[in-house]
Amino acid sequence: MTEKQIKENIEAYRIMEEQYLPTHRDDPNEVSKFSYFVEYVKDKKMQKSIEKSSKDIKDFCDWVADKEKIPTGQDVRRLRDIFDNEDIKNAFIDKGFNAAMQILEFKKPHLVSSFYKSIENVIEGLKEINTQELDEIINEDNSEKEKMIRELAEWSQKVVKYIEKEKNGIRKA
Questions:
Q1: Is the pLDDT of residue 139 over 70?
Q2: 70/20 same-domain check
Q3: Given CA atoms 152, 158, 159, 163 in this order, what sign does their dihedral have?
Q4: How far is the C-alpha of 4 from the C-alpha of 145, rounded, in Å?
Q5: 150-158 — which CB contacts under 8 Å span 24+ positions?
Q6: What is the mean pLDDT of the chain?
Q7: Model-level pTM greater than 0.85?
Q8: What's the Cα-to-Cα distance from 60 to each of 15, 32, 51, 57, 109, rounded to whole Å?
Q9: How many CB atoms lie within 10 A of CB 125?
Q10: Are 120 and 128 in contact (CB under 8 A)?
């Protein structure tokens, strides 16, 4: 472990020992939730997002104890995305993690779906393509890169046309 990771683990242990376990010692399995606190300590931006919503470590401890709020330790990582949007945050507080994730998937699909994350990465890649890369593609005969970009454009157009037809009420396959 790095020095930073050691400090984070010590802080996570301190929070768990002082804030969480005093009210959850009845169940010996609660100690296994240490990773929730490590994830919390590691993500300062998430902590700030939670605090902006007038929530604190006590609220976090309550969520850790409630499987409807935070089902697994890795789900703690999603709290930053959840607390970045008022509707999603309210769904989380009122109905739990799954309700928040459904809204998050609708509002920000690239944060939930690997498919939409890939699309976002491709868009960013195309925005950042430099002139040297473009010149290589243009000057290379039978370029695989060019073929891939053309295939991407072709399939993107097919999907866009299908969406437009569906939105206009004309169903054609």
A1: yes
A2: yes
A3: positive
A4: 41
A5: 152/122
A6: 90
A7: no
A8: 11, 16, 10, 5, 25
A9: 10
A10: no
* CA dihedral sign, ordered 9, 15, 20, 26: positive
- Domain that includes residue 10, residue range: 3-109
d(CA 57, CA 72): 17
Q: Predicted confidence band at 120 (pLDDT cuts at 50, 70, 90)? A: confident
Domain count, the chain: 2
Question: Which of 57, 69, 70 is closest to 19 using CA atoms?
Answer: 57
Tell me how far apart the terminal alpha carbons of the chain are, to the nearest angstrom: 55
Residues listed for the chain: 173
Is 134 found in the same domain as 105?
Answer: no
Tokens of 120: 């976002």
The amino acid sitting at 138 is I
